[in-house]
Amino acid sequence: MSQSILNLSRTLARLSLKGSSYTSVQCTRALNCSNLQHLLEPQCSERARSRKYPTSFTVDISQHMICTPPGAGLVVQKSGLHTTGTALHDNRFKDGFTKFKDHPIYKKGAYTLKPIPFPKSGGRDPKTGRIAIHGIGGGHKRRYRMVDFKRIGPEKGPPKTEKVVSIKYDPNRSARLAILAGGTHKRYILATRNMQAGNLVRTYGEIPRMPVLAEEGDAHPVGALPTGTLVHNVELQPHLGGTLVRAAGTTAQVLRKAAGQVILQLPSKHQISIDERCMVTVGQVSNHEHNQRIIGKAGRNRWLGKRPSSGLWKRKGGWAGRKIRPLPPIKVYLASDKVEEKES
After folding, report:
1. Tens of pLDDT, residues 245-291
2. Contact 280, 222 (CB under 8 A)
3. What pLDDT does 283 receive?
């Protein structure tokens, strides 16, 4: 090992013994952690013995990282080109997110209606702890509801029928949720505008020759619906769950069909082409008056976890003012099996 790295190791050992907190040290990937441990161990063990600190080292070669107890070692990260003696960032969201993912309900096949405690991000990246999105922080505690965005029905025979038990509020989204009960299973779905407790909703999986008579709350393959139908919870790939048009009061419209694809117009007026087997739900998303609510005071935005923007004066650039731009071309989403056929 070169003399420069040897000097670096001595400097790191001095930094790691200064305080009771972990010392964050960044270096290049070329630095071999095993060799660094071999150099640091005699220096740290001698000094730590006099200060009654433990001297154990933990080496993770795959991550280029050395983890030691406070005061007796250091933490070496694989990115960066400089060293620093500052303490690691206390990323509470990362720890909370790990606990959330380790929750028993995330085991294979587990599902629950019980709201799950979920940590706030504060707009920070869960890995680095750096601010990723400004204007987020604080607010009332929220719990996560496991919403089932997959409406998969039988391809043949009678549809899957479920009953609406109740309509619930969800703090994590603008729309309301509906609890469906069918057989021995209950689940959350997005409620439609006129959905009420006691209603029956059906999920179909067949595409008949003639378009079906669509009813609000029912789910169909988009190829089974007549043109002009208003839908929401749109899938981009068959059987992968709805990803588009899920906000309160939004709808997409079926425009036309061609060669196994269906053209939809989104709320943004953009048009997309999806496979006719993609599932959609008929009707408008609930809570259509969401965009007409009155905040009333600055404090309510803080309740919602929204922080105020900076008070510094900002010059109005090219973003200000009305612009008339042509719509982009239709974006085509081919199903995975069609992509394989096209490539072969």
Report:
1. 999 999 999 999 988 899 999 999 999 999 999 999 999 999 999 99
2. yes
3. 95
Q: Is 147 helix (H, G, I), strand (E, B) or coil?
A: strand
Lowest mean pLDDT among 44-48, 102-106, 121-125, 145-149: 44-48
Q: How far is the CA of 20 from the CAs of 10, 77, 188, in angstroms?
A: 18, 19, 48
For residue range 227-237, list pLDDT tens digits in order.
999 999 999 99
CB 48 within 8 A of CB 100: no
233: left (phi over 0), alpha (psi -120 to 50) or beta: left
Q: Residue 246 and residue 175: Cα distance in Å, rounded?
A: 8
Could you write out the DSSP letters of every residue in 276-302? TT-EEEESPBS-TTGGG----SHHHHH
Type and span of the H or E element at 6: helix 3-16
Whether the CA torsion 219, 239, 118, 79 is positive or negative: it is: negative
- How many residues comprise the chain? 344
Close Cβ partners of 57 (under 8 Å, ≥ 6 residues apart): 37, 40, 41, 66, 67, 68, 73
- The pTM assigned to this predicted structure is 0.68
Contact at 8 Å (CB) between 305 and 123?
A: no
Joined together, the tokens standing for residue 337 give 């099996």
Any bridge partners for residue 76, and if so which? 25
Query: Which residues does residue 24 pair with via DSSP β-bridges, in sequence order?
Result: 75
